[in-house]
Amino acid sequence: QVQLVESGGGWVQPGGSLRLSCAVSENIFNFNSVGWYRPAPGERELVASINVGGKIQVGDSVKGRFTISRDNAKNTIYLQMNSLKPEDTAVYYCRLLYWTNIDIWGRGTQVTVSS
Q1: Model confidence over 68-80: pLDDT tens digits?
Q2: Cα–Cα 20 to 30 A to 78, which of 34, 41, 64, 111?
């Protein structure tokens, strides 16, 4: 069973930055895509994802502020969050999507943006 461990959440003032990490226990190229999500009414909305070919998708609400990247050697996915806003406050979940469309979710890491 693949394991993923999220870290990097915390409290930050508006305008600040945080970097989230998602460490995966197996080769991330085993997955069609990896990404970060956060809760939205009735769903978990895409924050950012990157597929095996390197194609990146970013949610409209975070474009220009958040950046996803991966370290293939460390099997780790990062989410650099800049210019944070109070509305970015959420639990952020790492998601791995297998080629079979089976997905694995992490337990989440809390991000709180407030003054």
Answers
A1: 999 999 999 999 9
A2: 41
